[in-house]
Amino acid sequence: MSKPSIDRSLQIYQYLCYIIGSEEVVRTRRKIFWAQDSISHIPGSSLIHSGSKAEGLDLKGSDYDLMFILKSYRIYENVNDVHVSSSTHQLPVIMDISDTKPGFTKLKLYNIPHRNVSQIHISGEIIDTKLKLYNISHRYVPQIHIWGEIIEGEQFISSRLFREYGLPDHMIIHGPCRSTPDGAYDSAICFRCKEWIQPACHWVDRSRLSWPDPKLVTSEQRASLLPYLTASALSCLTYPKMLHIPLNYNNIKQIITSIININDAELSTYMMSLISNSSLLLSSLNFTGENKALYKQYQISLQCYKVGMYNDVTSAWSMLASLFYKFKRFHECIDILNYTLSKCTPEKIMLNFDNSLSEQTDFQKCKDAVGLLLTCKHIIINNLSFSETYYLLPVELTPLIPYDGYYKYDNTCCIPPVVYLNMLSFLCLHHLEDQRGKLNALKDLELTIREKYFIYPTEASFQIANNCLQIAKSMM
Predict the structure, then answer these.
(1) Is residue 117 located within the same domain as residue 244?
(2) Does residue 270 sit in the same domain as residue 372?
(3) Is residue 361 part of a domain?
(4) Fewer C-beta neighbours within 10 Å, C or N terminus of the chain?
(5) CA 201, CA 77: separation in Å to the nearest integer?
(6) Could you write out the DSSP letters of every residue in 350-415?
(7) 12 Cα distance to chain centroid
(8) How many CB atoms lie within 10 A of CB 387?
């Protein structure tokens, strides 16, 4: 290859790194999404991230794509491929491509041969018979008759009814997906066919040498004008927080095994840290009981706090302070809060989907110097998130729980970090009957909100911050 061609290739490579990230960053993104797919446990379905983000290409304007694969059904291209068995846990659905456009299919339920009946029309009663025959729990397919429509004596799944069933109020139908109105999130509920169907067989052996077209690579000047900066791994860290993984003691072992299999020590520890923080909010960790059982639960929580410090030490200390507050250890709680507040300095970085270039650069320099874990531990700062059952959320702040309002999305109560620290300090001083201290804490809270200190610039964040302020004023 000639020198001009080598220079042009390097410029194009630099341009791509600037836009989508280096090989390391792309690989890290893929690992994070793979880990989330492995550890996510949703009854009746499996989860797969898709689209450009899951491929590691975090392009500006690209949305967040999720596929939910229903486990209780299996798609067959041909009725002759269906094997009826009493041990089967999946309801067969047959493809019908007659009178459809290329790439589309109709889906109809398989008619089980029945004695003395030549044609089965699938009513609610017959569906119940099928579910028993296939050993399928009604929990997973309770509304199949609602999705169906009868066409010429056969039961087909209606695409419209299927997509609209159970549609959340805050989402709309967009093509085959359920989407947010701003187009930032798409979710598709899917059926799975385990074999390559005939129309797709040629994809396996298709040529991959005709792309990209040489005409696409024409702008050497554009690439040369851009500063060379590999996109930071900072953007990767937003992904695990986009999906709140449901936890219980039955699936924690599976989750830990999946994280270990990531085969990346730092990333595995980071993901384990996130899981540890989430596990603190399990309803099972409810500190009711006597002596030995209570002490055991307390020790488990302390271990979770230690592991949780590897993704955001501010959040970990804040949660520990919340635990001490729950046990009415107000003096120790204030000591932790004062220390944590002293660490909330301006150079900290709040994770969001569009961190500035300077934040990305600072993060990358620190990561190169001390590694991912120490960088996340000491530089990253995030909202305090309380999930159901909100056990560690102070009882005085229960009005913030998102039953309705601007910040309702996934039943998680998110409070800006410094706002929460000052609010918790105020509550401790209130119980200690320290009026002067309460007044100072209230002033600090007002200053934090006025200066927008570590508060996401969204209506929801300012709404919940102002609600905290109103609660504090009502207690003066």
Answers:
(1) no
(2) yes
(3) yes
(4) N
(5) 13
(6) E--TT--HHHHHHHHHHHHHH-HHHHHHHHEE--EEE-TT-TTS-GGGGGGS-SSSTT-SSS-EEE
(7) 33
(8) 21
Task: Specify whether 113 is located in the same domain as 246.
Answer: no
**For residue 148, what is the enclosing H or E element?**
strand 148-151
- Domain coverage including residue 383: 233-474
211 part of a folded domain: no
Last residue of a domain, one of 131, 164, 197: 164
- What's the pLDDT tens digit per position in 102-116? 888 888 887 655 443
Tokens of 169: 């109020």
Beta-carbon neighbour count of residue 251 at 10 Å?
15
Alpha helices in 251-329 (DSSP H): 252-260, 265-279, 291-308, 313-326
Using an 8 Å Cβ cutoff, are 274 and 311 in contact?
Answer: yes
The reply to whether 319 and 412 lie within a common domain is yes
Who's near 294: CB < 8 A, 6+ residues apart? 287, 288
Domain-located, residue 68:
no
Q: Are residues 149 and 288 in the same domain?
A: no
pTM over the 0.90 mark: no
What is the C-alpha separation between 239 and 237, in angstroms, rounded?
6
Query: Looking at the structure, do residues 331 and 432 belong to the same domain, yes or no?
Result: yes
Res 117: pLDDT: 35
For the chain, the average pLDDT equals: 77
164-181 residues labelled b (16+ CB within 10 A) or e (exposed): eeeeeeeeeebeebbbbe
Q: What is the pLDDT of residues 15-44, one digit of tens each?
A: 777 777 778 788 878 877 877 777 666 777
Number of domains in the chain: 2
In a domain, 209, yes or no: no
- Residue 106 exposure: Cα atoms within 13 Å on the Cβ side: 16
Residue positions counted in the chain: 476
Give the model confidence (pLDDT) of 376-417 as tens digits: 888 999 888 887 778 888 999 988 887 543 333 456 788 999
Angle at 350 between CA 347 and CA 354, to 5 degrees: 115
Of the three residues 149, 164, 179, the one that is the final residue of a domain is 164
Nearest to 165 by CA among 153, 147, 186, 182: 147
Cα of first residue to Cα of last residue in the chain, in angstroms, is 76
| CA 389/CA 377 separation, integer angstroms | 26
